Structures are given as structure tokens and as C-alpha cells.
Fold this sequence. Notes:
It is built from eight helices and nine strands. The protein is α+β, with helices and mostly antiparallel strands. It folds into three domains: about 80 residues, Serine Threonine Protein Phosphatase 5, Tetratricopeptide repeat (Alpha Horseshoe); about 60 residues; about 60 residues, SH3 type barrels (Roll), CATH 2.30.30.40. It has a five-stranded antiparallel β-sheet. It has a two-stranded antiparallel sheet with strand order 1-2. Strands 4-5 form a two-stranded antiparallel sheet. Helix 1 runs antiparallel to helix 2, helix 3 packs antiparallel against helix 4 and helix 7 runs antiparallel to helix 8. It starts with 10 loop residues before the first strand and ends with a strand. About 25% of the residues are buried.
Amino acid sequence: MKVFTVIPSGVEESRGATQGQFHGVPRLRGVYPERAKRVERASLGMTANRTLTILFSLAFGIASVAYAQSDADFTTANQEYAQGHFKEAISGYEALVRTGQWSANLFYDLGNAYFRVGDFGRAILNYERALALERHHPEATANLQIARDEAHALELQQSGPERYLQFASVNEYSIAAAIAFWLVVFAIVMLIFVRRRSSTLSATLIFCLLVSAVAIYAVYTLEGGSNGSALAIVTGKNVQARLATADTANSVLALPPGSEVKILSTRGDWIYAALPNNLRGWIPGKDAQQVRL
């Protein structure tokens, strides 16, 4: 059975030097140059769309494979933990952390693995990282307190505003501030262009301004507070905070593993930090890790 290809009237296929080589862009015969240009542009647009679709599909496929691999690695690390192979589980969890695909549960499980091998400093560090991503993580909160008790870790003192603002995270306050800001903009525009001003609209404007101000203040207070972006956890053993950047300098405070410090500045391999008990001192940079990655 023969198959016939019907070419519309007025259209011919452009061919190369070799017979049968089809370049894929139809050319019109006759005296319609504008129509020919439109058809050519449409064909090029279709080609570009197909290219974009292929590229998107490839990117989506690569991302799907990466996430599938991460899920498989996470499952493998969990199996190692369940079998009591805690060092192998730590290696698996840490590899996932290095990929940047973080989650509260990943840090929580990594904290549990470090707790099992008696590394309370890194256990506390990872519980803190889990809580930085998910403020209300009950298991991480409970295990963090247990690890602190085991290590006799010291904590930074929170200010009064910090204690009252802890019920929400910085991200939640940021979202509230952004929503309130756009509502303020909308209310101002309505007050400018609406002839008859409403008391309800004015009250909404004032309320949104207050919400935005409180949310911005909360972000500023929490980010600069004891649990803010500068929070670090002592992971080394027998760490002494000193008056100067030298191992022979006088000690200010002994810091058990898991103790909290707030990084103020750095000098070479040393960190100048705010310490528990309202003290300040220098500690080796290798003996502390920042909670926020």
C-alpha cells in the first residue's frame, strides 16, 4: 500500500543539495511575500517552543533523578541507623547535608546519630538546625533538652522581647510583614482614588501598619538575639574562652560541648563571641560551628 504526502497548494519543501534532505521550513510560491514571512516566523517560533520544551523536560528529569537519589540515600542512612551502624548513618546524613537539600527531619536524624555515639556537641548543633528550619518540632525540642542535660551545656540568656516573640519563626514574621506591607499599599491606593473614604478602610490601614511594624521589629530582634543568625554551638572538647587570641591567654569561661555562643567577629583562626553568663571571649574557630548554614 502506497502512502501519499499531500502538500498544500502554493507550498513547496525547501531542499538542500542532496535530494530528499528536508530542512523543515516550508516556503511559499507566488506573490505573497508577507504571508511567507509570517509562516516562516511561525515555524521558527514552533521550533523554539519545541527546544524550550525539550530543555525543560531534561531539567525536570535531572531534578527528579537527583531528588530520587536523595530519597534513596536518606532511606539508606535510616536503615544504617536502625541497624545500630551510627557512624555509617552519620556519613550518609552528612553527605545529604553537603548537597544542600536540607530538612528539619534530616538534621533531627543526624542529631540522633551523633547523640548515639556520644558526640553531644554535634547532636545539639543539629537539633538546633532542625529547629531553625521548623520552629515547632517537638521531637527535636525534647531531644535538645536531653542532650543539653547530658553535656551540661551552657545557654545564652534571652532578652525579655525574645522570650515573648519565640512563638513564631523569623520566616513566619517575614511573611506577615510582607503581606501587611502590600495591604498597606492597597489601602493607601484606595484612599487616594476612592472619592468616599471609608472608616473601615482607614482602620484597616492603621492595623496593617501596626502588624508590619511589629513583624519587622520581631525579625530584627530575633535575628540579632541569642538564637539569631550569629548563633554557634561549641563542638570541640575542653574548650576555653580566653581573653586574647592565644592558647596561653587567661581563660574567661570553660565551655562544655553543646554550649551556645554568639559570634561577634573573627580574627584569623579565632572567634570573638558573646558567651553565657554575659561574658565575652575568644575561642578557636575550629571548636564552634554556626547553626545557620
